[in-house]
Amino acid sequence: MNLLELLNGIIITIGLPALTITSIYMGRKLQTLDDIVDKTKGIDKKISGLANANNSIGQAVIEIQNFIRERGQVDLMSKVIPYDEYGVSNSPMVLKEEYRRFITKTSLAKQIEEKNDKLVVWLKQKKPETGIDAQQYIEELVTSGSIEQILDLKKYKEYLYQTGRTQQDVIGILTVYLFEKIIPQVIK
Questions:
Q1: What parts of the sequence cross the membrane (predicted)?
Q2: Which of 60, 143, 175, 186 has the fewest C-beta atoms under 10 angstroms from its C-beta?
């Protein structure tokens, strides 16, 4: 026996079992890959279902935000603003002296005087039966932001901001001042 025959015999003896083991190993790996492919086929449907649910939730959040912005703001703001902080009872409520500067220094008093007839007509059209009804209508006008269709509040808001005041103050001071100026002309 020569050396080549000996090497050939060793390679064949070791090679066949190695080939068999490698084939079995590769077969198992391919089976594992097939199992993974089978399991992931259903995941696509589940992921698209989750994406649809996520989109639906996003749309619901937007609708809730719009609802609060459009309808809920008046109710939320009216529960937060302590009008007695800005005014004193006098049927109607009258703006406290310490807050008058915010109205006078910004020319808002002059604007309200100029738009007085328009504001009175607006309130009369609401047909308030009581002073409380009139207060509610004025409060809604201010908290909803609709007042800015009648009055230019830019200087007023800027002045309050520069003096460290908040949006609550913007609403509270203006609302009480409008109570004082408009209600006596409508509710006698």
A1: 6-26
A2: 60
